Amino acid sequence: MVEVGYTQRDGEGVYFVRDNGAGFDMQYAQGLFGVFQRLHSAKEFEGTGVGLSIVQRIIHRHGGRTWAEAEVDRGATFFFTVPGTA
Question: What is the reported pTM?
Answer without folding.
Answer: 0.78
